[in-house]
Amino acid sequence: LEFKNKGTQTELDEYRTNWLNWTHRFSGTEKFTEWAVCNGIHDAIVNQVAYRSNTVNKFYYFADDYLFYTAMLAPYNSECISANELDTIEDNSYIMISQPNHSGSMSTWFPELMKRCEETNSKIFLDGAFYGTSLETMSVYEPVIDCVAYSLSKNFLLAGIRAGVLFGNDLAPALTIPISKLFSYNYYNINAVTVANAILPKFGPLYITEHGKKVQEEYVKNHPGYTALEIWMWVLDDNGNKICITDELQDDIQSILDKGE
After folding, report:
1. DSSP character for 158?
2. If residue 194 lies in a helix (H) or strand (E), which one and from where to where?
3. Among 110, 128, 178, 137, which Cα is nearest to 26's?
4. Cα 80 vs. chain centroid, distance in angstroms?
5. 61: number of CA atoms within 13 Å, CB side?
6. Could you count the other beta carbons within 10 Å of the beta carbon of residue 199?
7. For the chain, what percent of residues have pLDDT higher than 90?
8. CB within 8 Å of 24: residues ≥ 6 apart
9. 7 or 95: which carries more pLDDT confidence?
10. Nearest 5°: phi and psi at 132?
């Protein structure tokens, strides 16, 4: 790959198209009217939350989700709640949640959360970091979903590349302006765009997962007391503790992938 310090409109158009094609398992992404390149999903959250802080009353996140939400929402009026506290969500709030999430799968109570958001005129930032690491699907273009973000970090274990994208109908200008002509295509992560444009068209969202799930199932058979979660990287032990098994599975998965080349 050629690394450089200036991009082009063509590369940005390819980036958007590649992400839309790659995220087809989550229906509705293509319906959003705005988009932005972001440095992983972290960048999208920080900027969109700051933008929304001018109009919403409170932010919420969940105890079993991404721990970094605590730090990112610390400067604002925010609260950590559990799934059985959805009725405490106040009017005009903003909810951070990942799907699939850090519990290891899609949240069974997500429809209830959307209903509560309808009741309270609240919006959801949908963190799609784990998109493609399970076989689950969902619709992301819903009235209560403000925006949805994706990245290469989890699916391809490429967190250090910081290749992410955000789709919505009203995104923070701090995110959308850098990809405009105003900055001559040199104010966004051009090298992350280059990497994503090379990977996304060649390797689908289940490229690793379709094999990872099978290897995970074999792993569970050989470890009595373990239960496979929907996300192939994780299992539950007999005490209900979530365990990351990526390091233990990756050689077997890579061997399968190599044979398919």
Report:
1. -
2. helix 190-199
3. 137
4. 19
5. 24
6. 19
7. 92
8. none
9. 95
10. 85, -10
pLDDT at 33 over 80: yes
Alpha helix locations (H) across 30-108? 40-52, 68-73
pTM higher than the cut 0.70? yes
Q: Quote the tokens at residue 252.
A: 């077997």
- Which tokens hold the place of 143? 């009235």
Tell me the Cα Rg of the chain.
19
What letter represents residue 105's amino acid?
Answer: S
Q: What type of residue is 70? A: T
Give the span between the Cα atoms of 14 and 217, in whole angstroms. 36
Q: Are 163 and 195 a contacting pair, CB within 8 Å?
A: yes
Rounded to whole angstroms, the Cα distance separating 109 from 196 reads 32
DSSP state of 2: -
Helix or strand run (H / E) with residue 176:
helix 173-176
Do the beta carbons of residue 194 and residue 1 sit within 8 Å?
Answer: yes
Does the pLDDT of residue 184 top 90, yes or no?
no
On the question of pLDDT at 261 being above 70, the answer is no
User: What pLDDT sits at residue 4?
Assistant: 82
* Structure-token match 């990756």, residue found: 250
- Report whether 36 contacts 176 (CB < 8 A): yes
Confidence of residue 139 (pLDDT cuts 50, 70, 90): very high
What is the rounded distance in angstroms from the CA atom of residue 214 to the CA atom of residue 228? 10
The single residue listed with the structure tokens 């959805």 is 86
- Give yes or no for a contact between 73 and 97, defined as CB atoms under 8 angstroms apart: no
Q: Sorting pLDDT into bands at 50, 70 and 90, what band is 32?
A: very high
